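[recover] target loaded
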């Protein structure tokens, strides 16, 4: 898995818009709880390490979920639902 590129853009007034098919994770970087937004309900969310190893799976019941990343090692993680919905998360220790 590689870098997903730009996930958001700003209009002329500086308002930020997240692409419709992108998962938003905040706060990022994080040390504890992370909120994930723009999730597809009932579709498996996979979280992978930068090396492509699966570290976490979740089937969201809502379009927004909170997860505890306090046990994740420091690093960059890639979020994926299906082939289109993607995002990135940074965890610090």
């Amino acid at each position: 898995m590689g870098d997903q590129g730009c996930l958001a853009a700003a209009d002329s007034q500086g308002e930020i818009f997240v692409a419709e098919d992108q998962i938003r994770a905040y706060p990022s970087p994080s040390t504890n709880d992370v909120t994930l937004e723009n999730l597809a309900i009932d579709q498996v969310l996979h979280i992978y390490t930068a090396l492509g190893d699966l570290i976490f799976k979740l089937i969201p019941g809502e379009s927004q979920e909170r997860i505890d990343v306090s046990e994740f090692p420091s690093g960059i993680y890639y979020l994926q639902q299906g082939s289109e919905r993607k995002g990135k998360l940074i965890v610090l220790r």
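[recover] notes: Residues 8-91 form a domain with the Immunoglobulin-like fold (CATH 2.60.40.3080).
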